[in-house]
Amino acid sequence: MMSDDLEIDLDAIERRMDGALAALRVEFASLRTGRASGSILDAIQVEAYGQSTPINQLGTVNVPEPRMVVINVWDKGMISKVEKAIRESGIGINPVVDGPLIRLPIPELNEERRRELTKVAAGYSEHARVAIRNVRRDGMDQIKKAKAAGMSEDDQKMWADEVQALTDKAIANVDKALEQKQQEIMQV
């Protein structure tokens, strides 16, 4: 007498856990590692044309060499606004205006700053772990509701084990991503 409404949607649970990992990777991309990357500008918004606009929608972002990011601003009237937004963003880079181009020389990170960044990365990964555990809790709540609706003890245990396996896999992926990012940050 098993009905379909007692099925737990593992795909949805896995998708939500993968979403937490994807969000973590976006946060990691915004961390400066001493190597130039256009993604350090992703979070910076510029007041342009009456609204907040990402820099990559105001110009072309290139990385011509390992320690340089170059922005070719399309509208010459926006150059000073883009420069100001970068200065005020707190990424610790001083933009250099060169005609229509804004050059961002990426300074070498010192040991203390590298250690700070590894702690920030660890904080980001802990947020991802919490998000994954929240998804796990939602899955376990679905199982409890299904038990109340007549799911057998064996099925309940099987579904709980499946949800836990997805959780363990997602947490392991977060840990692996953190380890890679911390190695990248500490690399001189």
Automatic annotation (TrEMBL):
Q: Where in the cell is it found?
A: Cytoplasm
Key words, A-Z? Cytoplasm, Protein biosynthesis
Indicate the segments forming the Ribosome recycling factor domain, all copies. 25-186
List cellular component terms (GO). Answer: cytosol
InterPro entries recorded? Ribosome_recyc_fac, Ribosome_recyc_fac_dom, RRF_sf
- Where is this chain primarily localised? cytoplasm
Q: Which SUPFAM superfamilies does the entry link to?
A: Ribosome recycling factor, RRF (SSF55194)
One of its GO biological process terms is: cytoplasmic translational termination
Against NCBIfam families, the record matches this protein to: frr
Q: What does this protein do?
A: Responsible for the release of ribosomes from messenger RNA at the termination of protein biosynthesis. May increase the efficiency of translation by recycling ribosomes from one round of translation to another.
Protein name, per record: Ribosome-recycling factor
Q: What is the lineage of its organism?
A: Bacteria, Pseudomonadati, Pseudomonadota, Alphaproteobacteria, Rhodobacterales
